[in-house]
Amino acid sequence: MRALFADRMRAAFVVLGSLLILFVAWPLLRTITATGPAVLWQTLLDEEVRGSILLTFQASFIATGLAFVCGVPLAYLLAWVDFPGKRLVEGVIDVPIVVPHSAAGIALLMVFGRRTLLGQAFSIFGLKFVSAFPGIVIAMLFVSLSFLVNAAREGFEAVDPRLERVARTLGASPWRAFWGVSFPLAWRSILSGMILMWARGLSEFGAVIILAYHPMVAPVLLYERFESFGLRYSRPVAALMILICLATFVVLRLTAGRKRGRA
Amino acid sequence: MREELGSVQVRDLGVDLEEFRLCDVNLDVAAGEYFVILGPTGAGKTVLLETIAGLHRPLKGRILLAGEDITHAPPERRGIGFVYQDYALFPHLSVAGNIAFGLKLRKMGRGDIEERVTTIGRLLGIEHLLHRRPGTLSGGEAQRVALARALVVEPRLLLLDEPLSALDPETREALQRELGRIHRELGTTTVHVTHDFEEAVALGDRIAVLREDRVGDVKREGRIVQVGTTEDIFRRPANEFVARFVGVRNVFRGQAHTAEDGYKLVMVNGVEIAAVTELEGSVHASVRPEDIVLSRQPLLSSARNAFRGQIVDISDRGTIVYITVRIPPDFICMITRRSLEEMELREGMGVHVAFKASAVHVF
User: Which of A168, A261, A262 has its CB closest to that of B75?
Assistant: First the structure.
């Protein structure tokens, strides 16, 4: 603590930094404290709110699952194999972070929309994306997959590649070496990437609203209530969502905080 | 129970990696032999071992293990154990879990696995560590675990990549003796890579010297420049590189026993050399040429070792001169050119050599 105020410069930095912390924490706390526990409870009992939150959780969960299946192998390759165009692939993975999310929604619409080739192909299997659950899933997947892939890649990069080599000499096939050595060692990073991605998916608004206004995910519901009924009615929903997201975030920090066993 | 011991033949092996390449490597390792590849610190020796283990695809050439062509076999089908310099233990598994890793892949019963893990643990003196995590082990302990993990699956060939280099001197010496003992007990064909000449001499039945050169800006190239017994390598270096790398030294193999006055005597070719050491039995002893005092008359000095011999060779290297004196073992002594002239030394002349017991390094 004393080190923070060791000299005037540091004291000034403390003041400046605190402004930013306050800027984040104050509105969040204000929203939560302005809503009494009774109102929060009532909001939670509201069928529409509950259904919407559940829908959001499910969609983000499935998006995370899809990203896990394809993203972990990709992360493994990015971590350990040098191939031409690797920088480009890494760039592509990061693009969703920088494009406006509503633009991402439009882009998805161009490929998964009703009249598109893919949209029609999927509709044969009864899968439609516009104004439907799968649309929410792909919107969330698009905007949040970078979190999982990057976290998993960092996880694999931290594993000594010779461990897999030793496993191979002991009789493990490439698959067994992966599941027995690299995956468990990278697991903590992968898991924290999954939680981060899931949490990011929960809060997605821009891309989702373009593909599927209905069924309403929680952020869309919140927006609709604000537009139709004003601050008073949207605030409890906002408070509830902030609380839920804070809770997941705490879990995330706890998981990521426990360091891997040393090699 | 043991699979057939593997002889190894490497034929015209070429490997080309981004920063390193190996050219025309030819090796013949007999079944049960302890073979050492000696070379300066660099990437090359590891690449060679990893290629033999199947972890790099060779550009050309063939690798035969026990007569079977394994050039294109995946590493898991080769039956080759590998031990890295810094152990590469699985940090998420206990010591027992590390050792059992290969056994579990062989679908062995739980009881069998436990028995084998305990047996190998006893052989390496790590029974008491089985429940520990790798992160809590000392370097020497970790390397024993890595050895146990490689040996427990009874490999046809054991590859050791600088296994002692990460250890402190005391642990290194202990584990070096251990490697010799384990090899005598199990008889596993072993290829051991090191940059340490004494390690190579102490352990190797035969030695191959690997030379590395720069090609281009970043790339290095490795090739085997001499293969032979320890004697061959330091008595008859094939070229300037080997001679320089090995250095000029007096290395003898002998039997050490305790003398009455507390010194150890190392018997070499019928000559007893006094030394200061804890070791007994079959040992190597070395004396640096610059530690030997050469004189025409016997000297009265504190040196415990004094012998009379005959000059058989004078090798002039400019300001310094190497003189080989036959006692019967040949001692190489280093003197300055000026001493040579002042003492008027010539081949065939009788001279006296003397050196302190503390100048004798026993290993």
Answer: A168
Q: In terms of residue numbers, what domain contains B69?
A: 8-246
Residue A130 has a CB neighbour count (10 Å cut-off) of: 17
The percent helix, strand, coil of chain B (3-state, each to 5) is 30, 35, 35
What is residue B85's three-state secondary structure? coil
Contact A217, A52 (CB under 8 A): yes
What is the rounded end-to-end Cα distance, in angstroms, of chain B? 34
Same domain for B177 and B117:
yes
Facing B102 at nearest CB: one of A160, A165, A171: A171
The domain at A47-257 falls in which architecture? Orthogonal Bundle (1.10)
| Element holding B223 (H helix, E strand) | strand B219-228
At B16-41, the pLDDT tens digits run 888 888 888 999 999 999 999 998 87
Burial class (CB in 10 A: 0-12, 13-18, 19+), B352: middle
Give per-residue pLDDT as tens, A96-135. 989 999 999 999 999 999 889 999 999 999 899 999 999 9
Choose the final residue of a domain: B222, B246, B270.
Answer: B246
Residues of A with CB under 8 A from a CB of B: 160, 162-163, 165-173, 176, 180-181, 184-185, 260-263
In sign, the C-alpha dihedral spanning B338, B341, B347, B349 is negative
Question: Which chain B residues are within 8 Å of A169, Cβ to Cβ?
Answer: 53-55, 75-76, 78, 80-82, 150, 155
